[in-house]
Amino acid sequence: MIIARFTIDVPDAVLDDLAHRLERTRWPDEVAGAGWEYGVPRSELAGLVRYWRDRYDWRRAERELNALPQFLATDGDESLHFAHLHGAGPDPMPLLLLHGWPGSFFEFLYVAPRLADPVRFGGNPDDAFNVVVPSMPGFAFSSRPARPGMHVGRIAERYAALMAALGYARYGAHGGDFGAGVASRLGLQVADRLAGIHLNYIPGSYRPSLDPPAPDMTPEERAFLASADRWMEEHGAYAHLQATAPQTPSFALTDSPAGLAAWIVEKFRAWSDCDGHVENVFTNDDLLTSVMLYWVTETIASANRLYLEGRRHPLRFAPGQRIDVPCGIARFPLEEPFPPRSWIERGYRVVHWTDMPRGGHFAAMEQPDLLVEDIRAFFRPLRKP
How far apart are CA 204 and CA 178, in angstroms? Predict the structure, then answer.
C-alpha cells in the first residue's frame, strides 16, 4: 500500500460546467399547495439552486476541507481517500470515523478536530485521538469499484489494512449509517484489533439469530420490527430503488445538479431533527458542500450501488454469533426506526448507552458536541488493553 498526501483541487472546467447546468435547469411542474407531500417542492429547490448558482463558493469549501490533512492510500488499482489528524495529547488513541449515505467524510469536519485536539475546545488532553476519516470506496475521492462485490465486509477489510499500514495495531471505530455497518463488520472480522465500536445507528439489515437458546422476542421487539416495516413502506422508496436498480436513476443524478440536490437534500430534511425545516439545522453551504462531493467526483452512481451490495450481503448472525468487542450506543431521538436495547444486545455487547436530548441521522453535523463527548466517555475506560 502506497500512501501519499492529497489536496482537493477541482478543475475550473468542472465548476464552469456546473454553472452552465444550473443556469439551464429545466423545472418540472407540481401540484399546487402540496408542500412536501409529493416530494421536494419546486420553490424549496429553486431557492437552493439560486444560492448555489449565485452565492455558494466551492473554493472556500475546498479550503475548509483541505484544512484536514488528507491522503490517498493506493493498492493496485484501488485507492482510499482519507483524512488523518494526529492527536494533541500524551497518548492519543487511534479512532476511525465512518460515514454513510448520503454523507461523506465532510460529515466529520466539525467533529474530527475536537476529537484530535480536545484542549483547543476546552477538553482534557487525555481524551485525544489519532483520527482517521476514510471516504468509502465509491464515495468522494476514493476510487469507484469497477466490479461487483464491494460490500461493507470488504470495506471493513480495506479499512483494517489501512490502519495496519498507518501503524495502528489497536484502535476504536465510530460509525453511523453504512459506517455503522462497517464498524460492525470490523467487530466480527478483526475483533482482536478493536478496543470497541461506538454507533449512532444500527444497520438496517441487522438480524440476530432467534434460534434456541435465544429467548423469544419481546413485545417491544415485535413492535420495533413492525415499525421498521412501516417505515420502509412509507419512506423507503429510495432504498428499494438503489438496492434493486441503482444504475437507472444514476443517469439523471449524474447529469442534473438540481436533480442530485433534490435527491440528497430531501434526506437531510427527512432524517434530521429540524422540525420539517432543513435550514433549522444545516446552512445552505453545508448542504451544498455535501452535494458537491458527489457532483465534482461523479460518484453518486457508485455510492448508490452500495445499497445493492448491502442487499446481497446483509448483517445476519448465525446461532450463537455476536460482536463481542465492547459497543457504545448513542441514541439520537430523530434516528428512526431505532431498535430497543434488548434487540441490539442479542448481537452486540453493549456496555454504554446514551439517550440523547436532540439530534437525528446526521449526528456529527447536527450535534457535534454531544457526539464528541459521548465518544470520549465510551472510549475512556477502553484506552488501555
Answer: 9
pLDDT digits (tens, 9 = 90+) for 142-193: 999 999 999 999 999 999 999 999 999 999 999 999 999 999 999 999 999 9
User: Does domain 2-13+51-380 fall into CATH 3.30.390.10?
Assistant: no
Instruction: Please state, in angstroms and as integers, the Cα–Cα distance from residue 56 to each residue in 51, 267, 279, 285, following that order.
Output: 6, 20, 15, 6
Domain ranges of the chain: 2-13+51-380
Q: What is the CA radius of gyration of the chain?
A: 20
Work out the burial of residue 233: count CB atoms within 10 Å of its CB; fewer than 13 is exposed, 13-18 middle, 19 or more buried.
exposed
Look up cell 443556469; give the residue: 23
Query: Which helix (H) or strand (E) covers residue 351, if one does?
Result: strand 348-355
**Are 156 and 78 contacting, i.e. CB atoms less than 8 angstroms apart?**
no
Cell numbers standing for residue 148: 461487483
Residue holding cell 468487542?
Answer: 325
